[in-house]
């Protein structure tokens, strides 16, 4: 029986402990340039890329992911850096999962700024909100009639103009020139119904990889412990 080696790079989108509740694997911090190449020495069967660094140090290279694919490693991406790279390397065999991946693939998202967040290097917790989740939630507030078209446009303009480590709902609402009662309604909506799209997609990536293991079990008629 071949126990499959799975390496997954995640952090601010989904904590290692929450990911481990879904699937046992070798969880590593957000991927940097060289990390995938280095991971290949551990002979993984599957590499999952969720989070990665964007600006603090060089981002994960296309070449090292292509190297993994050529070696027969299944590489799955989604949610953040993984969604971006999967959309770029989709034609070469990288698997993309989730709403954010599809948005990059069809051109609705183009910039890494849409998914970039600041995170605590010790705990890997997110310290800012992603533009992709902000846009999704403000759009839902608009559809629900909590804010109007002009409010939505102003809120998104402020969000886009903020440097990503400073981008959060409190800051955006503080800077927006919209009536206080609408601000209060919007904040209440965000607290009760706000969704974290990156987290949702990250969970989808883990579940997709788990699904690969169960289909592999059926193909080989054996039980696999994915770690």
TrEMBL record:
This is TfuA-like core domain-containing protein. Residues 51-167 form the TfuA-like core domain. Pfam families: TfuA.
């Amino acid at each position: 029986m071949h126990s499959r080696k799975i390496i997954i790079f995640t952090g601010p989108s989904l904590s290692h402990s929450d990911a481990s509740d879904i699937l046992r694997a070798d969880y590593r911090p957000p991927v940097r340039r060289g990390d995938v190449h280095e991971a290949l020495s551990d002979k993984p069967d599957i590499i999952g890329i969720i989070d990665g660094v964007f600006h603090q140090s060089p981002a994960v290279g296309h070449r090292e992911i292509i190297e993994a694919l050529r070696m027969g490693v299944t590489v799955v991406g989604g949610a953040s850096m993984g969604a971006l790279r999967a959309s770029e390397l989709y034609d070469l065999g990288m698997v993309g999962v989730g709403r954010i991946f599809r948005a990059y693939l069809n051109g609705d998202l183009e910039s890494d700024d849409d998914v970039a967040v600041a995170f605590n290097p010790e705990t890997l917790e997110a310290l800012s909100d992603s533009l992709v989740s902000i846009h999704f939630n403000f759009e839902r507030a608009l559809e629900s009639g909590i804010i109007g078209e002009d409010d939505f446009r102003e809120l998104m303009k402020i969000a886009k103009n903020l440097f990503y480590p400073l981008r959060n709902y409190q800051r955006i609402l503080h800077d927006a020139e919209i009536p206080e009662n609408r601000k209060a309604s919007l904040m209440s909506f965000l607290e009760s119904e706000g969704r974290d799209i990156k987290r949702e997609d990250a969970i989808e990536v883990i579940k997709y990889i788990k699904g690969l293991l169960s289909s592999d079990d059926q193909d080989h008629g054996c039980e696999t412990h994915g770690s």
